[in-house]
Amino acid sequence: MLTDILIQLLSGVSRGMILFVVASGLTLIFGVLRIANFAHGSFYMMAAFTAYAVTTALGGSDLGFVASLVVAPLVVAAFGLVFEFFLLRRIAKREHLYQLIMTFAATLIISDGIKMIWGGAYRSVGYPPMLSGSLDILGRPFPAYYLLVIILGLVIAAGLSWMIERTRFGRTISAAVVDPEMVGALGINVPRLYTLVFGLGAWLAGVGGALAAPIGSVSLGIDNSIIIESFAVVIIGGSGSIPGALAAALIIGIVQSLGIMVAPRLAIAFIFIALCAVLLLRPQGLLGRRV
Amino acid sequence: MMAGATGPWRLIATFAGLAVLALLPWVIDESNLFLMVDVLIAVLFAMSYNLVLGQTGLLSFGHAAFFGAGAYTVALLQMHLDLPVPVGMVVAPFVAGLLALVIGFFTVRVSGMYFAMLTLAFSQLVFAIVAGWYSFTGGDNGAPVMPPDFLFNTINFYYLTLAVVTAGIVVIRLIVSSPFGAALAAIRENPQRASFVGLNIRLYQLAAFTVSGALTGLAGALRASFHQMAFPSLLFWPQSAEPVLMTLAGGMHTFFGPAVGAAIFTVLNFFVASYTDYPLFIFGVVVLLLVLFLPEGVLGTILGKHRRGWRRQAATKPPEVVAAAPASSPEPAAGSMQTVQRP
After folding, report:
1. Is the pLDDT of residue A291 over 90?
2. Which residues of A, range 59-98, sit inside 8 Å of B by Cβ?
3. Which of A19, A279, B195, B325 shows a CA-CA span of 20 to 30 A to A150?
4. Quick one: which of A185, A160, A178, A230 has its CA closest to A34?
5. Residues of chain A with C-beta less than 8 angstroms from the C-beta of B277
6. Interface mutation target, options A104, A224, A230, A266, chain B, most CBs of B under 10 Å
């Protein structure tokens, strides 16, 4: 029983790591541009399909997996940069409602766009050959791929923290999260910052999508659950906070994995209990700043 | 707001529109009348929604929960308690309103984009429960609704819908022109100032959210009765986007804008879905073009031009402007105001 819980805990952590990678992009976009990017789930889905295409083109080899992990996020990042530069930026001066609606329009277009290219059928991407085995944890098998996900998630968390703490770009981001107007007044090119942050956010959604592709099925509609969970992460963790996103994503991943053991169908309800508790006690999120 | 130069004309136009709608079953055939029922239901949905967005300035992305709650109230009351459909329709707004009260209790604590994300998250929770609870709701299979014999007739259902929707719109109109409505507009325009003059902002927002949710539930009840089925997809988040898009397409700063948007979208949806395999793509492009080129919506743009023209004429006669200004000031004038959405 205890080992069951441990295994569930570990798979919850790996699940939470993918959620973290995706939601960290969402929280950066939300923190800096102040837009709830509905298209974020679509970016994730787009990356999963691109990863599928790249992996299949290279015959499901290890090289194919590595290539998909590099190519898919870049494709999505490029899409995000173009989308921000040519569309969102055009209406940057208007109420944020319009930008939100524009990202929603993007979800519709991307969804049918993927259907046009790949059709509506379910696809699956296997684990890469070198990680297809499983580890032995107290006598129970644990997929080696999940371990890779956990490690990569930690690497990305560390990389983002380093970037935000140590680089000029990162310092500008955290300044913009607190006070975008002041950042503009200090002579920073705010529109360019917005485009770059949006591109970075899309890239992170892409990494999440490419990482998730071998785990679940790659199909239309996988954008729906990830976007809701990512919003929950942003609210629980606090807008623009990377450590907050990591904590919230791990909580959600673990709560869901353990919840599946208790009440499979209502596992999602556990997220909302956490969400309500946070809202009542700390409306600004676990690690967010009071706005 | 009924006063002022546009008062009598507005009234005449409203009654003329109502007369045309009442005569419609003699003019168009049954399949078009079927579409008209869907249009009217969408009109009530969108106009109830705009009580929250246009009037109060809250961007809700979770109204599907209330639409679905209304639909499932009718279905489940019949399924489990054997209560007839009309009873369900009466109960539906109360159930939906109660749900809105609970969700609103948590969500009005935050504003702007947070509010949008939270309402979305809560409606997804309701969706997950309804879709997952097979023994109670029928899960993915939906819950059937058996309307009484007289409602099987499309013409009868059309008149029922027309009556209910008209009543709903009258209620919305009364709310908008009441002191309560004025308070909501004040909160939308400047929440800080509204709180300084002593308005309990959260309480007002919660009240508006609850009423809007209740009326949305009424629309959902009509929908389930008409299509003889309540589906989980009525609660799914793209359904929440529908009233937002309709309101935007018609013009959220005008009273009948959401109705115009609802008609456009429902009819467009009907034709797009029957002529292409990629309806979402077409919709996405339409929405994109609307946001880029017609931000005030169709009716907002038409009325906006009209009003500007009227103002320019009025400006040549200064005394009239002074006299007209106080009378027309509570009216949400298109183009002249901004909804506060920033967190």
Report:
1. no
2. 87, 90-91, 94-98
3. A279
4. A178
5. 115
6. A104
